[in-house]
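User: Sequence in, structure out. Go.
Assistant: Echoing your sequence, followed by the structure tokens.
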Amino acid sequence: MTSCLIPLLSLPGGSEWIIIALVVLLLFGGKKIPELMKGLGKGVRSFKDGLNDATREINDAADSVKEEPKK
């Protein structure tokens, strides 16, 4: 069963990326693509900042638990 799913989950190859890029270019046009990439970059940056904040909060909570004296 899982061997049937492996081809479906593989990443596109070189020629497939070219076809995808051409379809995106046709759909959005050359002027809209930089705006889309800028928005994508901001989204990725926001996600990384949120991930770093969550990691920092978890580490701070773990450190505060370690520092509390045991009764």
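User: And one key feature?
Assistant: The helical segments are 2-9, 14-28, 33-67.
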